Amino acid sequence: MNKSQNTIPVGDEIFRLVYESPASLPGRNKWLTRDADVRKIEELLGMPTDTIGAPLWVSGDRKRCAECRRETNWLDIVSSALEHVHSREMIARVILGEQKFVNTEAPRAIADLKCFQCKAAINNLRSFKCHNWAYAMPAMLKVLQHMNKA
Fold this sequence. Notes:
By secondary structure, this protein is α+β, with helices and mostly antiparallel strands. The protein has one domain (7-149). Helices cover 34% and strands 16% of the residues. It contains five helices and six strands; from the N terminus they run βαβαβααβββα. The strands form two sheets. It has a three-stranded mixed beta sheet with strand order 1-4-6. A three-stranded antiparallel beta sheet has the order 2-3-5, with no helix packed on it. The longest helix is centred in the C-terminal third of the chain and has 12 residues, at 138-149. The radius of gyration is 15 Å and the shape is globular.
C-alpha cells in the first residue's frame, strides 16, 4: 500500500469487512445520522426524498456541537463540503456510487467542518462512512487485503 495515498478503491469483500468492523471508525463515540438530517442532505444535494437509504455513520470524541449542542453528523459534513470543497454531484457519487473506497488517514479531526445550525467550528468529528466509503487503520486494511488474497 502506497503510504502517500490515503484513499484507495477496494473490492466489495474487503469493504464489507472494514465497514462492518466496529474498529473501523476512530474516536470515542460512533453514531448514525438521524433521519431528519438525511432528508435535509437530500434537499441540499437536490435529490428526491428517500434517495439515501443506507446508514450514514460518524464518529468522534464528542457527539454535539460545543456551541449550540446540535448533534454533529453527515449534514455538517455535506454542508461544509458544499461551501468549501466539493460539488453536489461529487458528494452524491460518494454517498450513492458503486465504487467502494477505504480511507486510512484516521484524522484527529475533519478539516474545515462547521455546524450546520450555528456555523461554529467543529473539531471533534474524526471520521464518517456510508455504504461505499469507510475508514480503517492502515494495518487493519493491510491484513484484510492479505486475507482476501489467500
